[in-house]
Amino acid sequence: VHLHELLRELNNLPEEQREVIVLIAVAEFSYTEVARVLGIPIGTVMSRISRGRERLRRIFEESVRPCLRRVK
Amino acid sequence: VIGPGRPITEEDLHARATVDRYLQAHPREAERAAAYAAQQNQLRGAFAARAAEPIPSQLNLLRLVEARLMRRRISWRTAAGVVILALALAGAGGWWLGNHTPTGIDALAHEGALNYSVYAVDDRRPVEVWARNEGTLCAGFPTALTDLWRLPN
Predict the structure, then answer these.
(1) Distance between CA B62 and CA B60 in Å, rounded?
(2) Model confidence over A12-46: pLDDT tens digits?
(3) How does DSSP assign B52-110, residue by residue?
């Protein structure tokens, strides 16, 4: 996946998902720290990061699949 | 949840073993976990690449600062005062988490104004100082302050 595409898709995520992804994946905060910084329950941190990661994964799987079909 | 610099506890090891067993028994979930790990590495790579890019000349802070300082010179002490005040406010009650937090575009304007007052007057360094360059950071503070305080690591 091209870096610019990834950043573009990250930018397209809802802000609440984007901020937890950046804090956890890039800034290496723990779930507890993110919950404290954003003032939200830890369960909310978990559900937001889970939805965000899943959304990014789906987007990129969909962009890869058509190429694989053509190879068949 | 385990990050660098955090001690790994007995519970972490047990949890890790439980997760590994689960993933072995559920290949689809294992695939998903691997995709998330790859995604995380790519995100880190993407941000690292962006951080290493040279600053476009129109955003070069030194140029902006030079132009500004020609007109009006603000002492480093004033800038340091703003930093100390910001730290004191933050320490006084998690002020950015409180009810008085500006939201939306106001928050951006507030942050911009604070950043500008702190960094724009700094004519000695670029705006970003990495944590490992503690010496550079300390050099910017008046000696009277560094005698009294240690920078938080």
Answers:
(1) 6
(2) 889 899 989 988 888 888 899 889 888 899 999 99
(3) HSPPPGGG-HHHHHHHHHHH----HHHHHHHHHHHHHHHHHH-TTTSTT---HHHHHHH
In three-state secondary structure terms, B60 is coil
Is B97 an 8 Å CB contact of chain A? yes
Closest CA to A8 of B44, B54, B46, B48: B46
In angstroms and rounded to an integer, the radius of gyration of the C-alpha atoms of chain A is 14
Whole-model pTM above 0.80?
Answer: no
| B36 to chain A: closest CA residue | A53
Angle between helices B27-52 and A42-71 (to 10 degrees): 100
Q: How far apart are CA B152 and CA B150, in angstroms?
A: 6
The verdict on a CB contact (< 8 Å) between B6 and A57 is no
Residue of B35, B47, B97 lying closest to A26 (CB–CB): B47
Instruction: Read off the pLDDT of residues B65-102 as tens digits, 9 standing for 90 and up.
Output: 566 555 555 555 566 666 666 566 555 544 444 445 67
Q: Do B97 and A1 touch (CB under 8 A)?
A: no
How many residue pairs from chains A and B have C-beta atoms closer than 8 A? 39
User: Is A22 buried (19+), middle (13-18) or exposed (0-12) by CB count in 10 A?
Assistant: middle
Give CA–CA dist B114/B112, Å, rounded.
5
Q: Which two tokens stand for residue B96?
A: 């950015």
What dihedral do alpha carbons B112, B117, B123, B129 form, nearest 10°?
Answer: -60
